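Honest question from a wet-lab person: if I give you the sequences of every part of a complex, can you actually get the arrangement of the whole thing, not just the pieces? Trying it with mine:
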Amino acid sequence: MEYTKLKVINNKKIGSDIYVLKVAKYNEIISPGQFFMIKCWDDHLSLFRPISVYNVESDAVYFMYRTIGKGTEKMAHLKKGSEVELLGPLGNGFPVEKVKGKIALVGGGVGIPPLYETAKRLLALGNTVDIYLGYRDELFGFEEFLNVSHNLFVSSEHGNEGYKGYITDIFHAEQYDAVFTCGPEVMMFKVRDLCKEANVPSWLSMEKHMACGVGACLVCNCDTIHGTVRTCKDGPVFFGNDIL
Amino acid sequence: MMNRLSTTINGITLKNPIIAASGCYGFGREYNELYSVGMLGGISSKGLTLEPRQGNKGIRVWETPSGMMNSVGLQNPGVRKFISDELPFMESLGTVVIANLGGSLIEDYIEGIELLNSTSVDFIELNISCPNVKTGGMALGIKNEVAYEAVLLAKKASKKPLMVKLSPNAENIVEMAKACEAAGADSLSLVNTFKAMAIDIHKRKAVFDNIYAGLSGAAIKPMALRMVHEVCKNVSIPVIGLGGIYCVEDIIEFIMVGASAVQVGTANFTHPLIISTLIKGLEDYCIDQNINNIMDIKGII
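Yes, you can. This is the full assembly:
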């Protein structure tokens, strides 16, 4: 973990409220599923925003985010050459080394970004990777996932493309050796429960409001069978059956 | 070499007047990954209670203009685990260690103090002011006479200098400070967070399960400064000022109104390296202003 300021290479709009921010090379090793605290305002008014790592290249790091409030609105205005403050990489990430075989990645909405880098690593480790992406209405970013999966399944609630309904309707846990998921809690818990029934291990990437991002302030609590733990430091990825 | 920043509180010398505020800094481990936290004047531990606590349910943080609200609810490993697992690390840092102690029952406070008596902690900071615990804490911090009784018993039990952390929600902050001094407090720290509220209008519900939460950050600084000023005019024990400190100028303001040291909390979240830059900035200020020791400007207002 380090605190650093990096230059924006570009900040591309890929959906009505979805952006991909590309920043210059970062020196530290980043594990798939880790996140950064990001800030691009120099005043003391606003906290950092926790954003997961979408893609890591030798000369750049990418973050995909949705504009949902003050902070991300400001991020959307970032231009090439401007500076962003980053604190990270933070958290544990998905246990890509622990799993083997046929792996499913299930993403929902703006929870899909960390699955991209995760899929890349899983493929490099020789696994078979199926990806399930669930959207509400507008689809974004899914074409990229064709390059990092053996099979890609897409759903939307309006059915404009792919399956009409929830992604969990077409996800069959029993086909897999392990499952990683990131998205709305209701979707992740459904995935976790389906995996539990099929006796397949699952890992969930939890999202919480955060302040410090490093494990000091205890506001991003997650209730687990091991007690109340910190999402930023002890997570954000937890073994599905551990989460209460 | 001249130490322009040193300050002495209850006979204990801090190498500079900057202390990490309780609840914002854990036990120093996390920020020690970013810079050497041994450079601080002191660290006030995450608020401890006799027994471990899991803290509050629901949302615990909410951003506000120039500040944030929190409702952590004293999640902590308990005094015994602090002593066995965290204190050895804090001792190794070379900074003054302040054990912040909260609770609901006076008996628990006393037992916690007795456990801490036989450790190396430099101060016990008695938290009589946490707004996020439904019993104790807040009530203690609001009524002078309740606080007086609690501090009296705590002082009797304590072999360590007793720093009492005051709530800005006290009925009368000056009378509260005087009551704590009369009961034997060795020093005071103020202010803790302001009791505040937020609503989620879409859910038509209060944001926090506890309804109210504690407001901190730059938004509270002018009020905190006023309270520190008033208290410093009315007590003779050392006062540690806190509440929304973000920059060197803020620290100087608190010292000018009478603080012997300051605590920095919420600013760590928006500026992860802030304390290291504040120490340097304060030193530069002294050199620039030809001040031999920062305490030379203490209480000039």
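Two things worth pointing out. Residues 7-297 of chain B form a domain with the TIM Barrel fold (CATH 3.20.20.70). Chain B has one domain: 7-297.
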